[in-house]
Amino acid sequence: MNLSQEQYARMVQQASPPSSLVKDCFFAFLVGGLICTIGQALTDSYQAFLGLSLQDARCFTSITLVALSAILTALSLYDNIARFAGAGTLVPITGFANAVVAPAIEFKSEGMVMGLGAKMFIIAGPVIVYGTACSILYGLVLYALLPNV
pTM of the predicted model, to two decimals? Predict the structure, then answer.
């Protein structure tokens, strides 16, 4: 069956469930804000109860959020939250942890090297590559413009 791009687009449009932009934005804002609020509460708690410096508390918060995201992904709960919250679960650190853990879980049956090792960064790999490249480019431009800084 040969379909033109226009015919394919029409088929996709018909098969896709309708969504409300306002509702989707509200839930993304709500869940994304909740994740950030949890992060701030963790930072404050680590400072208050463990006596950590702000820098150390933020580090522990990042570790905690990555661990929670990985655990929720492993328990298949992160996908349920993402279906409800949409883009709200893409808060960088939790979304990135999910992007690494989900393919690792999906392909673990293919073995440790060809499954888990090779497929773990299938989604997150481009983010790492382009993020690294952009940070190097940004550093070079900054160094060229402000060599004394």
Answer: 0.73
Q: E strands, 11-143, where?
A: none
- Coil, strand, or helix at residue 113? helix
CA 19 – CA 148 distance, rounded (Å): 51
| Domains of the chain, residue spans | 20-145
Q: Are 81 and 89 in contact (CB under 8 A)?
A: yes
Q: What are phi and psi of 11, to 5 degrees?
A: -65, -45
**CA 65 to CA 83: how far, in whole Å?**
19
Residue type, 56: D
Rounded Cα distance between 69 and 52, Å, is 23
pLDDT tens, residue by residue, 7-65:
888 888 888 877 788 888 999 999 999 999 999 999 999 999 999 999 999 999 999 99
Backbone angles phi, psi at 7, to 5 degrees: -65, -40
**CB-CB contact of 89 with 30 (8 Å):** no
